[in-house]
What does this fold into?
Amino acid sequence: MQTPLDRPFLSLILPVLNEAATLPVQLAALQGLRTRGTELIVVDGGSGDGTAELARPAADRLLDAPRGRAAQMNAGAKASRGEALLFLHADTTLPPAADDLIRSAIAAGAAWGRFDVRIDGRQPLLRVVERMMNWRSRWSGIATGDQAIFVRRDLFERVDGYPELPLMEDIALSTRLKRFAPPACLRQRVITSGRRWEKHGVLRTILLMWRLRASYFLGADPQQLAIRYGYVPRQS
It folds into this structure.
């Protein structure tokens, strides 16, 4: 039987899908957290490029779950043991000592929170986008997955985890969480990949995200929004 002494403070949940090209660098960067006691759980959504095989030796647990970040992150949370949970996208890099920053925030009374974000890329408009993301999050109390959301386990379970939506699951979770407590908006930055922005164009991506978010708040079907965003359901 697990005792409190066996339980890590932090469990990091990393949902992945066909990330073989970049995952080794990400996992290498997370080994310091593991050394300091963070539990690392990788949840694969059915990759076909060897992602799972790369992840297996570098994680405490490797799980398979239905495709979709929400379903994958819920599966990882259910299997985890930490007092607090950290959800990290596979293309996002944490700041140094992220575990200590989270521990300090929770010790100071935070029930959940997120980091400021920097988008990796040379396009000058990305600097404007990241500032707006951070400002909007601080003003609204809503966090995005790119900002590495962390939450105490008891609160995550109280709100029944991520709504299993194919898109906007981070917005939906934040909306649930802020009913109980405002987020700790840490100014230390995660660095997230600008690959989607650069591939599709910064302005085009901004407009697409604004339209999708507005449609979501107006009650549009998240499944249809996900298809517009480029989501492809997992084939059985």
Observations:
- The first helix runs from residue 23 to 35.
